[in-house]
Structure formats: C-alpha cells, structure tokens
Fold this sequence. Notes:
alpha+beta
Amino acid sequence: MSLFSALSVSASGMAAQRARAALLVENIANSETTRTPDGGPYRRKDAIFTSDDVGSAFGSELDAQLGGDRLTGVKVSGISVDNSAPEKRYLPGHPDADADGYVTIPKVNAAEDMVDLMSANRSYQANVSAMSAVKDMIQKSIDLLR
C-alpha cells in the first residue's frame, strides 16, 4: 500500500461523512415541516454506505499483480427514506390540520440526529487526522532524500 492510496481511502471517508452530515442537517431543518411539494410531511433520510475500491486503476492492477491487497474506501450508495407512518399531533389551529384537528408531523428525532451529526463530524475529523499523518510521512520521506 502506498501513502497516496492511504490518502484516497481517507478522502473517500471524508466525502461519505460530508454527505451523511448534509442529510442529517436536512433532517433537523425539516423536523417540523408538515407540507412538502410531494404532499404530506417531510420524510427522514439516511445515507447508505458501501465499500468501494479506491486508488488509480494502474495502481490497483499493479498491487493485484504483486499480490497486494486491494484497498477499499467507502461511498454513499444510496439514500433511504423513512416510509413509516408519520406522527399525529392535536393542533386544531394549524393550517395543515385535518377535520379532527390533527396534524401529521415528520418522524424526526432532532436529538438523535444531533448525536449522529456529532458522530459524522468526529469521523470526518479522524479522516483529516489520518491524512495529516500521511502528509507528514510524505514530507519526512522527501526530507530524507534531500
């Protein structure tokens, strides 16, 4: 495994966590949205991660021929939408209330999404730290060759 391949693994993790954080922020921002263009309340979204080969095609093929392991990173393969029944709250004065005075509210737990957002932030920071360590190793290698 080359140091540049390690950078690719960390970069894929950073991109995946950025996409996850964007979905979590969207969930929090729409936790009280009762009407969407599709009709009905907002539906909570989650990122689906899968493993993904990283690195250049030449580097991967060279590693395979030399008996090396293929490096895998992570990518967002899709977005799952929560299709469970939304909650109902009795709010008779709300513009979206039905005839009985109930409003369908999104099933978004803001506290849970904030914890997930902190987790995504820490995962992103861990990838930044790994990239910094690799960068320092590359710099020290260059210094040794001078």
